[in-house]
């Protein structure tokens, strides 16, 4: 299994290009099996497998900051950062969270719950990076459902005035809960 080769952050970068479609299929099979057994968010995670893989191939974690909105689309991210075993106790007391949590992994840069906060949080990281002179990238991933929150629009307004590198990825899958 290709998924067995993923034990730590950035392991995906060691795969052959031909292994990537196999990995995507294995991730989906894994998520369907584990979520069927233990519960969790299924559809939102199945829809971001390739997107998450692409970000993990392009960016360097944990140095670069990926901020998820909404956080329940981060299961592939958790797999690609070496937390496969945690899925046996997903969303259980003392188990792995269904959302990104900084105490779980240095690759989780923001404790995300539900929606409309990723762009604001990303702006905070980008501004902090400028003040400290650090050299990491900031990526806010926001689902179309989170775009229904006014906080996201306020953050977009503020981002338009930012004179720095900051990436916003809109996962527009027409599945907004609105």
């Amino acid at each position: 299994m290709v998924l067995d080769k993923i034990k730590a952050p950035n392991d995906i970068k060691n795969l052959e290009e031909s292994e990537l479609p196999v990995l995507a299929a294995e991730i989906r099979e894994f998520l369907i099996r584990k979520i069927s057994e233990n519960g969790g968010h299924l559809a939102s995670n199945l829809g971001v497998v390739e997107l998450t893989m692409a970000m993990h191939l392009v960016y360097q974690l944990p140095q670069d900051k990926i901020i998820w909105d909404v956080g329940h689309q981060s299961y592939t991210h958790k797999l690609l950062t070496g937390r496969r075993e945690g899925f046996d106790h997903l969303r259980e007391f003392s188990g792995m969270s269904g959302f990104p949590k900084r105490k779980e992994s240095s690759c989780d840069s923001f404790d995300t719950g539900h929606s409309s906060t990723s762009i604001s949080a990303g702006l905070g990281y980008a501004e902090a990076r400028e003040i400290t002179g650090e050299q990491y990238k900031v990526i806010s991933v926001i689902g179309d459902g989170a775009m229904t929150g006014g906080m996201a629009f306020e953050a977009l307004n503020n981002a338009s005035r930012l004179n720095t590198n900051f990436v916003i990825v809109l996962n527009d899958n027409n599945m907004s809960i609105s």
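Residues 130 and 164 are 8 Å apart (CA to CA). Residues 20-38 form the longest helix (19 residues).
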